[in-house]
Amino acid sequence: xxxxxxxxxxxxxxxxxxxxxxxxxxxxxxxxxxxxxxxxxxxxxxxxxxxxxxxxxxxxxxxxxxxxxxxxxxxxxxxxxxxxxxxxxxxxxxxxxxxxxxxxxxxxxxxxxxxxxxxxxxxxxxxxxxxxxxxxxxxxxxxxxxxxxxxxxxxxxxxxxxxxxxxxxxxxxxxxxxxxxxxxxxxxxxxxxxxxxxxxxxxxxxxxxxxxxxxxxxxxxxxxxxxxxxxxxxxxxxxxxxxxxxxx
Length: 248
Ligand SMILES: Nc1ncnc2c1ncn2[C@@H]1O[C@H](COP(=O)(O)OP(=O)(O)O)[C@@H](O)[C@H]1O
Ligand SMILES: [Mg+2]
Hints:
With 248 residues, this protein is of the alpha/beta class.
């Protein structure tokens, strides 16, 4: 198999043209979007999707046009959190008028997505298919004018790196952690990747704050990365908590 660098010059410029065309299409679709915010965490289960959905709803209640792109293709939870209608259009309209696109809308049985490909190259294949799905969501969906497009990324850095490549520029990043040292260490890796790529760190949301999860992850990460803790969310917070978050 030839690598990119072994392609002959005419082929190579053809490839460059294709990448250019894709980026232009994404740029055209997102031309009316003021701010793109990627929500990251180091690990799953810390409430990233929960925070994304509630933050998006709060922004929408304050009069912003908000879209959520559920980029967690294997565990899409945003449709349930935003209560989008079952036969959803793309974008679907959820609670408080938040627009939403999710792989969950395209799965009839609710089962996790499994991309089938050559078994020996399963990992590479999956990564390529997921990057292609993200590119389609960004290049095909007519979001219209938005103040915020918030992306709920799966755990790890892979989707973030694909996003940087597709956008051609690093998105602003908001990180979600629970207070524990374990979560802090996982989020630290995600934040390092974001800083290396040149993302603007909007801040840290410390979630599930309370006796169940002792720790100081929020403050530790804030100090290390010189980024603010923009919210501390307890279990089952009152709805007004979201309206106090300074992301405007
Ligand atoms: N502050 C919170 N209070 C109550 N339940 C929460 C809170 N944050 C998250 N949850 C719940 O914890 C579970 C995991 O949250 P989720 O957003 O799916 O995590 P992630 O997207 O990081 O994997 C979900 O059932 C969610 O409803
Ligand atoms: Mg999630």
